[in-house]
Amino acid sequence: MMPRAKLKAQKVEAAETLLAERALPGGGAWLRRAREAARARLVEMGLPSKRDEYWRYTDPRRLTALEAEAGKLHDTQGEAPVFDGFDRLKIVFVDGVFDADASDALAMEGVEICPLADAAGMDLHWARDLYGALEARGQAPVERPLASLNTAYATEGLLIRITGKPAKPISLIYQRSDQQADAILHHVIRVEDGAEATVLENGPMASRFNQVMEVDIAEGAVLHHIRAQGRDHERAGAAHLFVRLGAEAQLKSFTLTANGALIRNEAVIWLDGADGSAHIAGATVGDGAFHHDDTVFVNHAAPRCESRQVFKKVLRHGAVGVFQGKILVDQVAQLTDGYQISQSLLLDEDAQFLAKPELEIYADDVKCSHGSTSGEIDPSQLFYLRARGLPEDQAKMLLVLAFLAEALEEIADPAYADDLRDRLEAWLKRRG
Amino acid sequence: MLEIKNLHCDLEEDSEVKILKGLSLTVNPGEVHAIMGPNGSGKSTLSYVLSGRDGYEVTEGSAMLDGADLLEMEPEERAAAGLFLAFQYPVEIPGVGNMTFLRTAVNAQRKARGEEELSAGEFLKLLRAKAKELQIDADMLKRPVNVGFSGGEKKRNEILQMAMLEPRMCILDETDSGLDVDAMKLVSDGVNALRAKDRAFLVITHYQRLLNHIKPDFVHIMHDGRIIKSGGPELALEVEENGYGDLLAEAGV
Ligand SMILES: Nc1ncnc2c1ncn2[C@@H]1O[C@H](COP(=O)(O)OP(=O)(O)O)[C@@H](O)[C@H]1O
Ligand SMILES: [Mg+2]
């Protein structure tokens, strides 16, 4: 093994090389300060390396390379994008750049939305207490250098302040036009006391993307977050979700991932106030050259909070799925209820699932459980369905969807769950 | 309707384990046959081999349904041809709603037979009527297939599937096990309601009591992979009174 000091020196050098050519984008003082601090964090940490314990199962090189690899644009063959049938406030990004003409007016009762590019010019903005702040906090207990890179260099993204209960979901749509686009997007969402909203995200975003979403959910507020990372195959990307919850606040976040050469989704969640609730779930389908990594950290930092992690992956033809999930319960967090399950369904012998579930508990009166399984389609279930007349393909598909159902059930509104389920079914049918 | 001749099978993973050792049986339309026999005689294996479960290797003999070679067909083709097995141990399928499952199964069979699929409305109407007879409530229909069902609920659910699928050749494997008196009555009423001139039943049971409710035309005693004695309903009573010992001794095994 390489000595620690040497590895560190290499990582720092890699960061310096990456940053040497890139000047920090300008902006108001609040943003400049956040960028400079993030840049300093990055230089201090260095870029992630395959040798890091935290990147043991996923090779970050495509994410840290100086240039993004080109990725073919996907032919959707006329299939409508996900969420298409829903009435929503549409906000479009093309190759990671806000497209005002393609978007609805950024106005709706109960919410203020401002593109990061516009806010950058302002001397003061409400987001200054959050932009880069949650990301900085998320650098412990493990370093997440890609997120600091994002804070330092993002010029695109949205600052969303939810003050009431907007009538429609806020829908972020990520389209592609350039095969080579390398997107950095940084969103900040603040849900004020007692407010409630749904944020949708869908689309392939870019050939390479680095996304950060910092979310602050105030007392008694609720955020529903539903994300569909589709569909282009040759993409690589990392997404970080940092969420801080106040007392009695609730988060429900769900991610569907299909296709993509390398996708790392990190989620860092702090339950800072008593009686909060955070549910995070994911359904993944991978076929062929596909590497998908869910890395989740949930910190119970206050009493009587509840957290759930439900991750399901269906893999075949060499697809690789990774789950790293940790629940950390602080000493003050008595009566914590923490749950974590990660499961994979391997449709053939070439597919691989790597899981690292962890619990770290410092309070004595808590209920925490975690489990991880990896298996194939149950032959007795398959036979039962076939004995009732279902052809083998149809029976298998039903069982695959049944396996994913537990993750989809984490979405509060069944209309979205049904839409995503239909997508999954179509995906499975296309691939036979 | 069902014609089994000199059927031999062993375990696929270990051909040394021979289970069926020359079983012959003919079932005609309208008849009810009972197969009784001690545990381990191969009754469930027979039902699996007929319905097409993996894991068994047929080494000799044949099994025909209406003149078609069952052993050449996929399980779903056998189902579409009218064969139904009520499982001794119905399988739990989390994530698949019971109603969705039933509707998918009914329509898959109709499609395979070139018939039109049932509309949602037609299906529901039919399902409600049949479920009511078996005292299966809406909750059981909404729950995932067999998940959290009691032993009796699982068996009633099997009979509901049979009633919905209207198979011609019904095999019931220990449908009485785990049933209390009331459930036994419900299940047998469900079966009796399906008795018809062009439909036949093969009722596998360990005990005679089910046969008080579902009256068989023929009773076969099975032991060590073959039928060692056949007769009328009186054979079941003999088992009830004396156990299998005398019958086995008489057959020289
Ligand atoms: N899949 C299997 N693996 C190993 N042994 C089996 C298997 N299936 C059946 N057998 C054996 O075959 C014999 C008959 O079993 P079974 O058909 O279940 O009998 P019955 O239903 O009459 O009780 C038993 O000795 C049983 O252990
Ligand atoms: Mg048996």
Description:
The complex is a heterodimer of chains A (432) and B (253). By secondary structure, chain A is an alpha/beta fold. Chain A has one domain (7-377). Chain A is built from nine helices and 20 strands. A ten-stranded mixed β-sheet of chain A has the order 2-1-6-8-10-12-14-16-18-20, covered by helices on one side. In chain A, strand 3 (107-108) and strand 4 (111-115) form a beta hairpin. In chain A, helix 1 (4-20) runs antiparallel to helix 2 and helix 7 (379-387) packs across helix 8. Chain A starts with a helix and ends with a helix. The model of chain A has no long low-confidence stretch (mean pLDDT 95). In chain B, strand 1 (2-11) and strand 2 (18-27) form a beta hairpin. Chain B has a single domain, classed as P-loop containing nucleotide triphosphate hydrolases (Rossmann fold), CATH 3.40.50.300. In chain B, the strands form three sheets. Chain B has a six-stranded mixed β-sheet with strand order 6-9-10-3-11-12, sandwiched between helices. With 253 residues, chain B is of the alpha/beta class. Chain B is built from ten helices and twelve strands. Chain B starts with a strand and ends with a helix. Classes of the chains: A alpha/beta (432), B alpha/beta (253). The complex binds adenosine-5'-diphosphate (ADP) and magnesium ion (MG). The site of magnesium ion has 4 residues of chain B, from helix 1.
